[in-house]
Structure of Peptidoglycan recognition protein family domain-containing protein:
Amino acid sequence: MRWRSLLTLTVLVLAFGFVRGFPTTARSATSTLVGTWRLDPATLVGGEVEGFRFQGKGLQLVQPFDGVGRFITPPIEADFEFVGLGLTWETPLPEGVETSVLVRTSMDGKTWSEWEELSSDGLDAPDGAPNTGTNFYVGKGRWFQLQIEARGTSPMALFDGLAVTYLDTRNGPLAADMAWPSAAETTEPVVISRAEWGADESLRFDANGNEIWPREYIIPRKVFIHHTAGSNNIPDPAAAVRAVYYFHAVTRGWGDIGYNFVVDQQGRIYQGRYGGEIDRHIVVGGHTLGYNYSSMGISVLGNFESSAGGIALPAAAEAAIESFVAARCQRYGIDPLAGGSIAGTWFPYGVLGHRDAGTTSCPGDLAYARLDDMRATMSTYIHAMPPELYFSRPVDGEMLTTRLDMEVIASPTITKISMLLNGTVVDEDDTRPFNFTLDPAVWPAGTYTLTMRGTTSDGQTVEETRTFTFGAPAPPTVAPPTCTNLLANGTMEEDTGWTFTTTNDTILTGSASYAGVPHSGARSIFTGLPSGMLTFAARYSSARQTITLPTQTPITLRVWYRPFHEASPGNDHQYIAIIKADGTFVPLLDTLQNTQTWALFTADLSAYAGQTVTIYLGTMNDGYGGVTQTYFDDVELCAGGTPTPTPTPTHTATPLPTATPTPTPIQTPTATPTNMVPQAFLPLIVRSKPPTPTPTPTPTPSPTVVQPTPLPTATPTPTVAPTATPVACKNLIVNGTMESESGWALTNNETPSQYTSVAHSGQRGILTGALAGTYVPGVRYSSARQTVTLPAGQPATLRVWYRPEYEPNPGNDRQYVAIIKADGTFVPLLSTLQNARTWLFFESDISAYAGQTITIYLGTVNDGVGGVTRTYFDDVELCAP
């Protein structure tokens, strides 16, 4: 039997006397038959049981049975013939218990299917969805049977409220009547729309008509290939797609299907998640936990495992995936063969199998084995396509009065983008993603012709040209004296009116305070986390003021805000919102910006006239990467008139500094934290380019920047070229090979760091973090540290080999390579969460700390939630001439 941490679900064949069980049946508005069977004591008595007893609505391990329980249900007859089924339960399984669930299906209760494996590791779900169910088993049947096993010592009930949902979705359009894939190799196959495959769009909405899973769009950086697993007995693929959709949207409660696209074994391609694609952006799906905001997911109907019941990936499906994914890679600038990082994790290719991102067997051994050839074919198709590039702004005729950070999306064959103003190259970028800046503080006012030029590796070029204007910031609106600000202390100059969050680890809040970074006057409000602060969980920081709005309209809210974030801020958010009297959080502005300058936000609140609302100004840090901050000042809420103007700082052509100092709190009124604001969805923004760890350093020349004439000199963002490995290295680290007991200071707590036989070379390495099966009672830091003084005026390079691993559902755990400065400042060089289970190479130039005494920090943080995380380190070099 295959054991897996948390849960593995498999379809099994066993023969027993038949019972009906206790299923219930309902028919949806689209004539989908829905049946539900629930575990109850009668079923337990009617089956074979050892080491289990029924407790509450679940199963409890009984001692003494060596902590092992086994339970086989009688064969259960469904109310109707189904096309698939899935399992759900109400409470996540407790820590320290390994479980396996086996299922089998039959048409007549006599002849049974092979054992099939379903996954319940939660890795194929939307970010934040509870892990209380399996993926959907696609397979025809009238009978099913479960075998459940568990091993552990937890007294808690397992599979609380266990239910099997089975569906018949055949009353709808037939796949045989739908579009067939194109025969041309480099022609993109037709995508069958949701309307064509019969999606019931009412399933996406709750009883109040609200969309359950609001749509948000991203530029995908990777493509993940999945399979649905289960059976290959799929009588009608379109019905199977409808069944997966219902199970995801309704049974699991997601509000939509998790995949962006679904492919059947005949090569048809079906649109998945509602919203599809807009320009060069795709709707965020729920298919690869932790990477949904950086990728698109495509699932193939069927089981492609090498075990019994699996089949080879059909040629028609493989060909459709190759041509379709090649076209999508061309659209989004994804090189199928090129490595790169997303969400802090390095991946070797642009097109990947689901198992590359977690401990899952998806998309099956037989499909995964085909990916190398498929990537090569996709690359061939892409090289036959003409190069193209795209950027959304500036549009023709647009006036820019504030800095614009822009990303150029380019075909995988394009290796360099040049930015030209009035025909002169002013900046170039040869590293993806291609990021550029247009800043009116650098360039004089006037009309410019912008050309973005892409150059391929073989010298082909493609250009896109727009005309725009640099202008001075628009003056503030002058208001008549008919507006009385309904908010107390909107200027932030007093200590009244606003309620602040304080640091609280239980409800995950951070401190907000008055600060001396004003838009006008002497003070503003600071929300977020101080620069350089280390946090391992989400932190909500806000200022709030509750007010009853008059019935007089219009009602206008005006807020000046100054946003900032450090590199790689993750899924942080900057908010201006209202909270209704019933607690509903209504974002008015949900963004992530790093302009470091004051901007005005205006919202019409007339729809809330006569209601009591709370004005919410805040920042959410997700605990990953760099921190995010927002200052707020000059907040006005006016009814029946135009707001009073507030002073605007004099515009200057000098660019703002690149860093924001940590705010100095002036005074924080005592406040009681209110309910934590739920995490909202990531907005469409252009991110600054984060540092990307690569397995091996490759020397790259610095980009050439040609300054314009007669325009003033632009200031492109400098790019530091990687440094080639020197011939000789004077290693400043003692015992960098980990072969002796010297040099390193190790932690000693519930997750101690220690020397280990897991080595990159030689006999030993260092382990930080927790081994599988270890109980971690809360946040625990495990590290190896060594203090060294760097020579003055000399370059210094840190090289580390590391092997990252984690168990399913690691929560907010982190793996670090960092330095600690003499003043105690923690500076992450690598902050990631990976499960590569192989040795990776990391290199960082730390010449900026020449002449300083620093501590090299190699470590792992476990947050005490979900699966544990560990990191092995070996062959550490700190090289100086």
